[in-house]
Design goal:
By secondary structure, the protein is an alpha/beta fold. The chain has eleven helices and 14 strands. A seven-stranded parallel β-sheet has the order 8-9-7-6-12-13-14, sandwiched between helices. Strand 6, helix 6 and strand 7 form a beta-alpha-beta unit.
């Protein structure tokens, strides 16, 4: 970020909340408040008039709500947007997930009454605005609208012999809504997703992805058997790993300390996949800030797994893919977001060929 303070437009229908959010933004040395708006229509007028660098946008507003306003912003005057919401009900969660799909960088819960909560919101808002200031806006127009799959896979019952482990953070919900629906209903592997999100939101993310995908999607549960042709989303606030139990592979959730400041984190999952599946795995790192997933992807590659990262041009933030690429020394595929699903399936197909050749060699040696 340059030494110039980034200008922020604060949008909320409550004058009281506009004042609180404005005071919080003004307290950050990297940001300044350029103006406020009371609803979506007012926000669009102010964006055209004031040209702010960033926008904080309330989800629930009269006249033109945050979701509709976000659509106009991203199509007419694109810039990084951080959503703010009370998030007290399932509908609020679903709207927040939808906003992230439409291009919002991040979301922050609105402050409540307590001083402790205000301090927590201040920290989260600062993190979100810093991430927003680093966003690659050129990536946004390249992302397709989420698509609904026309084919739904049947219930998965067969234990997974191959796994695809995916990490994503800032920009992840939108990226996942493009990648996962493009996976075949007959993928033949289990898919485990770690998206950096707090508790209460990953269930909504899984529900939204389940509506879009050919493969069933659910939030991961502790002790749940890992099945092929199923997508599991790590629950917010808990790490997920794959472990052995009674000869089968199961998902193991825990509340151990954060890794790289987040929980769930990708590294614990990736390291467990490297140990449990070795070459029978594909590791994927999508858009996000930080280095989570880098050490784990390197461990997977060292164990014989194939590796895929999203390219810089289509990443909302290229931090995680870049760090993973550096940690690995090289990756098997660095591709645009629209090509990630195809790259994953190509790597799985190559694994099948290698496995068949290995089986043929062993069979020939045994026969002789």
């Amino acid at each position: 970020m340059s030494s110039r303070r980034c200008s922020v437009l604060v949008v909320d229908d409550s004058a009281f909340m506009r004042s609180i959010i404005s005071d919080l933004v003004a307290s950050f040395p990297e940001f300044s408040v350029i103006g406020t708006a009371r609803d979506g229509h007012d926000a669009l007028e102010k964006i055209h008039a004031l040209d702010p660098d960033l926008v904080t946008l309330d989800v629930e507003m009269p006249v033109l709500d945050g979701i509709a306003a976000l659509g106009y912003i991203m199509s007419e005057v694109p810039r990084p947007v951080v959503m703010l919401s009370a998030i007290d009900a399932r509908g609020d969660v679903d709207l927040t997930i939808r906003a992230l799909e439409l291009g919002a960088v991040d979301f922050v819960r609105k402050p409540r009454d307590s001083r402790v909560d205000l301090d927590r919101v201040k920290e989260r808002l600062h993190e979100a605005l810093l991430a927003a200031s680093l966003v690659n806006l050129r990536a946004a127009p390249m992302l397709a609208r989420p698509r609904r799959s026309m084919l739904r896979a049947g219930l998965a019952t067969e234990g997974a012999h191959t796994v695809v482990a995916i990490a994503s953070s800032t920009g992840g919900p939108r990226a996942l809504a493009e990648v996962l629906p493009a996976l075949s209903a007959t993928l033949g592997a289990a898919v485990i997703v770690v998206q950096h999100m707090p508790p209460g939101f990953t269930e909504g993310l899984a529900r939204r992805l389940d509506d879009l995908c050919a493969l069933p999607v659910s939030e991961a549960k502790d002790g749940e058997p890992l099945c092929a042709n199923h997508i599991y989303v790590a629950p917010g606030g808990r790490h997920v790993r794959v472990t052995a139990a009674g000869g089968a592979t199961v998902l193991s959730l825990d509340d151990t300390p954060t890794v790289h400041g987040v929980r769930p984190a990708a590294d614990p999952l990736f390291l467990s996949v490297a140990e449990r599946f070795g070459e029978r795995a594909v590791g994927v790192v999508l858009t996000g800030m930080g280095r989570d997933g880098a050490a784990g992807l390197a461990a997977m590659r060292a164990a014989g797994a194939r590796t895929v990262v999203q390219d810089q041009q289509t990443s909302t933030i290229y931090g995680m893919p870049r760090e993973a690429k550096v940690a690995c020394g090289a990756v098997d595929a660095e591709v645009a977001l629209s090509e990630v699903a195809a790259a994953v399936q190509a790597q799985l197909a190559q694994q099948d060929v290698r496995s068949q050749r290995s089986s043929a060699r062993h069979s020939g040696s045994f026969s002789s």
